[in-house]
Amino acid sequence: MLSNLLIKNYALIKQLEMSPDPGLNIITGETGAGKSIMLGAIGLLLGNRADVKSLYDPAEKCIIEGSFDLSGYDLAPNFEEENLDFAQECIVRREISVAGKSRAFINDTPVNLDTLKRISSQLLDIHSQHDSILLGSNEFQLQVVDTYAENYGLLHAYRKHFQAYREAAKAYDSLQKEAIQMRKAFDYDQFLYQELANADLRSDEQTQLEQELTILENAVEIREKLQLAYSYLDNPDSSILDYLKNTVTAISQASRLVPAYESLRERAQSCLIELRDLADEIDGVSSSVEIDEGRSQLVHERLDLIYQLQKKHHTTTVDELLKIQQELEKKVGTVLNLDEALLKAKKEAAKTEEVMLKSAANLSKERQKVLKTIESLIIERLIELGIPNASLSIKITEIQPTNDGIDSIAFLFSGNKGTPLQELRQVASGGEFSRLMMVIKYILADRRKLPTIIFDEIDTGVSGEIAKKMGKMMIKMSENHQIIAITHLHQIASSGKAHYFVYKDHSSAKTVSKIKKLSVDERVMEIAQMIGGHNPTESVINNAREMISKD
């Protein structure tokens, strides 16, 4: 339950704090005094949109804080799902900075608005007078049935199965569309792949072939230059090697006389060995350079093929061509295996659909079980609330699967004898809507196990004895739930365990909305004024006192 509410710097509220009673709390006040402002502030705790224009003082931040006593309510799993620590005393806070930035906290842990909504929706429920319009919505009527049937687990399971089916069906549909496009391109892709595969490309062959072709095309000149180089090194008439041999012999003779020259002899000997190896290698390379027109033609043709493929595929290297070949092979392989992939995707979609439909059937079965019970409970309470000829039938129709199942729910209503049943939104009056919503909230209260329920003028369109009965229903609900009721009717106001009065204070430069808890005498006077105006007679005051004492 809401144990304490703090509102600072919001709209016309500079600072407001209240600690509601665990039972039935009544809030009254003149129109425009600030009751709706309070609800707007509480709405921020429920994750409603924040607006910097709501600041009472634009230079200070706004703080809305609700302290909740959760003892006796099994809400720990809800906190665990959001990775939040659970405590019997839960503090929910919302802040709006002067720049308009909004922040939310649960037990001082920062949370996003989605988390805030999921947690706070388990702590309190606000029903405003405008929400009665929801009652005409088939979606809301379906929620009523599910809430009464306590289908939370079944609905959660179905939605998981429905989502799995949608994803599988989407995957199958996408694969079908992709298959059409891939098959259109298959012949051309296969041709390109086969062309590259037949080329039997190797990663480093282009460089090797280009080097070989250079040698083949310049074989005569290359051989001449190599032979000339060899002749300089070694020829019968005069060569570097002969001179170097003589140099080694001369230094050897000198080193016999002067041993220190031995290092010079060794160096000369090394040069001779190196030049001998160089001459042999030049001679060998020269001998390997052949003038081969046939090989030259083959290399030309191979390089032309590589260049053509590179131009065709807008590449500059063989490695890029090989990568394209791999991609084409994958595409072609995918198309060749499409039938198998399509069959697998189709089976998966059919499998998830079967599971989803079975889950939907279980959910539908539980819904149908409670329809008659809901009908009888609503009619019974409506008769108590002054609609003696009320008739209600809940029609369930099977539809294509949606996120809520395969059922469409319609509440068919008649408030008058002999009048045919029609959909609620077509026949119910404002007063009937209020009573219907009150009855539905009443029969669903224990099913939802909400700690706190707030009614904002749910009594619109009713008065007299009916209002008194609505008050008694609220008293009954307050045995297991904290009820906060904003009302203009003295019959309901007199039913409360605690009574708060909202008013405007004009004593300062700027009007401020305030709230105070009324004492017994103040409460009697407030009820009396609700009955007889600002100057109630003594008999009206006594009547008010009697109403409070009876309740």
TrEMBL record:
List the gene name. Answer: recN
Q: Which SUPFAM superfamilies match?
A: P-loop containing nucleoside triphosphate hydrolases (SSF52540)
Taxonomic classification: Bacteria, Pseudomonadati, Bacteroidota, Cytophagia, Cytophagales
**Functional description taken from the UniProt entry:** May be involved in recombinational repair of damaged DNA.
Sequence ranges assigned to domain RecF/RecN/SMC N-terminal in this UniProt record: 2-507
Record-stated family:
Belongs to the RecN family.
Source organism per entry reads: Dyadobacter subterraneus
Supply the alphabetized keyword list.
Answer: ATP-binding, DNA damage, DNA repair, Nucleotide-binding
Q: What is this protein called?
A: DNA repair protein RecN
List the CDD domains: ABC_RecN (cd03241)
One Pfam family, please name it: SMC_N
